[in-house]
Amino acid sequence: MAASASGTGVVDDSVHFNPNPNAPSTSTSLTRILLHSAPESFQSATEHPFLRLAGRGTLPRATLSRWLSQDRLYAQSYIGFIGALIARVELPDAYVSSQDKNLTKENDNDKDKDEDEAIRPWRVVTLLSAALDNILRELAFFESTAEKYGLSLDAPSRSDGDGDGEAVFAAEPATQQYIDLFRSFAADPSRSLLEGLVVLWATETVYLRAWTYAASFTDTDTNTNTNTNTNTDINTDHIHEPKEGSGPPGTGTGKLDPFAADQDSGALRSAFIPNWTSIEFADFVRDIGHITDLLAEREDAVNRNLDVYLAVWAHILDVERRFWPQVEHDS
Known about the structure:
- By secondary structure, the protein is mainly alpha-helical.
- It is built from 13 helices and no strands.
- The chain has one domain (about 30-325): Heme oxygenase-like (Heme Oxygenase, Chain A, Up-down Bundle), CATH 1.20.910.10.
- Helices cover about 55% and strands about 0% of the residues.
- It holds the Pfam family TENA_THI-4.
């Protein structure tokens, strides 16, 4: 299921997390090289105390609202980022069937199709279109879940202020760095499609790993999340909707939510964490890694521009570490 709470955070490859920090990579794929390049930074970015409290149901509602409000800003800026990446894809004149365009389980190991110069761009577009559709669903999911559990999506941070002592809602420094990074792909045509895919893969990989870590703190005897997955890979056509039930809050079956006594009334452990650790999301991250590695291989990126992608990965890990709110350290 989820990674151990005492795990190192080191990842074996773009599909499976490896608890052994000394395990060598057996592949020279770009994503595997990146995953092995900064294990301590990866751990810091994905095993934050905020996540431990979230997984235990002890994260204060106000803290969750502040973080969720920042994550909403992140998600909104993601839309323009994906659009900028789609604009970078050069589609071929050759006809490509709908079946060949899609990222499916049947096509996963079809190397001939992966290497087809006409098919590959369409698969990039399919992936990015799915990512865009997925983030729109995610924003709707934020809204409905926040309404159900009494959370705010524009909660000011403690550090915010307008000079009169009143807190105001604005992007925090780490959030603004993500927004600026995403916007740079629209503003700077010199940034490549591959660099953008590395950003996409990196952000989704750390997000999945972080919430998988959080899920590991939920008591397995009462955990209603049966979809947690240690894969870092997405079919993006599925987002869990908040479960409707007869009780406030319910589970959708008329039974009392086992996490209703959590400080957030179960928002994280009944809704958000199952969504962010689902098999579907893991499949999506895998698909991003697959497409990224194919494009990197085609461009000989490991030999020609590895320093660029290592810098991107290091930057994402640094920003993600600071994206989590500071909380009281638990025992």
